[in-house]
Design goal:
The protein is α/β, with parallel strands linked by helices. About 35% of the residues lie in helices and about 15% in strands.
């Protein structure tokens, strides 16, 4: 088996680990990555310490079969204790440290694969197209070709999109990461406008604070919704909100959202918690004052009530199973009416960053404005229009690309796959893929992560990617009898 892996971020790390743990006949693995952030992806590059992961260690493992994999790695790092979040009682480390974990995990997997007889190589170039589609011959930007039997797309979600046409304007940053680079160009007294109010915007506010920024910081958001605040972990033993229950529902055909809500209602009833009050709190996300909600949720970090913890868990563990089975009307409703609520629940900010943001808002240094209608470069600054007109010196884009969006670096390859019939977009975007093997239309191509049409519209977390990778690795290592390509017929470059 000759496997080509396009992209070397979190999904690729999980796949290499799963292949190293699998019991299969050794073959050849070639990983293609053109960026400098090998194994780290966009999110986990070397950066300022203020940019931290958004989950405790148990929710960050890159190995599907070992939830404590990252936790054990951290135990060998005495410096991790410096990043203890007292509210959570667990270390919330810088993203750069998690990137180091990913890099070491990838290298350990490659070493193990090689010991087991696999030939593994990493090509520091992007795959730009196909020299041949059947059988597959990948062509890099440098014109070199590589024959493979199976290809796995691990390309991530790409970079932010310039919504206001500001690219090239002095003081505009379309890609904020790494903030260590971005902040060097921000004067400490500058008026900073951040487009967005999600986790990336919170990262920017925290990093500016650590950098000693004195000027005003404005978060611009159409919804005005801030991420929920993560609660201290508590043991959860759900009886109704389980992956097994999700599989049972999905096996019965189309699933209505009301059936999923009924599981949550039953779970809270068993715990003696008030479902109606909890549901009203969640529904109020878009209407409640965001600063008041932030203050209240910080006070509730150690709350004994389990409703929000259970809902966050269910979104992550049951959501990927149920999403493809939901009726189209319910999928549209959740995407259009409740996107920010679900995203804020599934990826809450850690208390450490929430406290920084609340201090900024309470002091008046930071403010949250909703409904920006226009942003334009004007002289040496920017003119902002919402209910009034105001100005800023610096604009930083913190709006992540939506799920299913093809990363810019792979657009030419994706066009070739679609044109050749190797891949096919679903009506609502995203590549059609077989659920268990993640195989695309041609069968020789596979996809991991949010580029698949049946994935949810929120970013897949590392354990979710690891689980997908484990299933795919099992499929790949159990295949046999694949045809060999005639070596003499292969072009050297095209």
């Amino acid at each position: 088996m000759r496997i080509g892996i396009i992209g070397a971020g979190v999904a690729a790390v999980g796949l290499l680990d799963a292949l190293a743990c699998a019991d299969g006949t050794p073959g050849t693995i070639t990983v293609f990555e053109g960026s400098a952030a090998l194994w780290r992806g966009r999110a986990y590059q070397r950066d300022v310490p203020a940019v931290r992961v958004n989950a405790p260690p148990a929710l960050m493992s890159a190995r599907a079969s070992d939830r404590g994999h990252f936790q054990d790695w951290l135990a060998q790092r005495p410096d991790a204790v410096r990043f203890l979040d007292p509210e959570l009682g667990q270390p919330i480390v810088p993203r750069a440290m998690y990137g180091e974990y990913l890099k070491q995990s990838a290298r350990a997997s490659i070493d193990r694969l090689r010991r087991d007889g696999w030939q593994v190589s990493v090509v520091n170039e992007r795959v730009s197209g196909l020299a041949q589609a059947h059988p597959v011959i990948l062509r890099t930007e440098g014109g070199v070709t590589y024959p493979v039997d199976r290809v796995v797309l691990c390309v991530g979600s790409g970079r932010p999109r310039d919504q206001y046409g500001l690219t090239g304007a002095t003081g505009y940053f379309d890609e904020p990461y790494p903030l260590a680079r971005t902040l060097t160009e921000v004067d400490s007294g500058a008026r900073v406008a951040v487009i967005g109010s999600g986790l990336t915007a919170v990262d920017i506010a925290a990093a500016l604070t650590e950098n000693g920024h004195r000027g005003p910081i404005t978060l611009l958001s159409r919804s005005g919704i801030l991420p929920f605040v993560q609660q201290r972990p508590r043991p959860l033993s759900p009886r109704h909100l389980t992956p097994t229950a999700a599989l049972d529902l999905a096996a019965g055909g189309a699933v209505g959202f009301a059936e999923v809500v009924a599981l949550l209602r039953a779970e809270l009833a068993d715990l003696g918690e008030d479902f109606d009050g909890f549901a009203a709190e969640i529904r109020a996300t878009s209407s409640e004052n965001p600063v008041l909600r932030l203050r209240r949720q910080l006070a509730d970090v150690d709350s004994p009530l389990l409703g929000r913890r259970l809902l966050t868990m269910a979104i992550r563990t049951m959501g990927p199973i149920l999403w493809p089975a939901l009726t189209e009307a319910d999928r549209v409703m959740l995407r259009t009416d409740h996107y920010r609520t679900i995203s804020s629940l599934s990826s809450p900010m850690v208390p450490h960053n929430a406290e920084i943001l609340l201090r900024l808002l309470d002091s008046g240094q930071a403010r949250l404005r909703t409904g920006p209608t226009a942003i334009a470069a004007e002289g040496t600054g920017f003119r902002m229009t919402d209910e009034s007109v105001w100005t800023a010196d610096i604009v930083i884009n913190a709006v992540n690309p939506p799920a299913y969006v093809t990363p810019q670096d792979t657009e030419s390859l994706m066009s070739r796959l679609l044109h050749s019939g190797t891949a096919e977009f679903a009506p609502n975007s995203g590549l059609l893929a077989e659920p268990r093997t993640r195989a695309l239309r041609a069968g020789t191509w596979h996809v991991l992560g949010n580029l698949a049409a049946d994935s949810m519209f929120i970013a897949t977390n590392p354990p979710g990617l690891a689980a997908e990778a484990a299933l795919l690795a099992e499929h790949l290592t159990k295949e046999s009898g694949l045809p060999e390509f005639p070596r003499e017929a292969l072009p050297v470059s095209i």
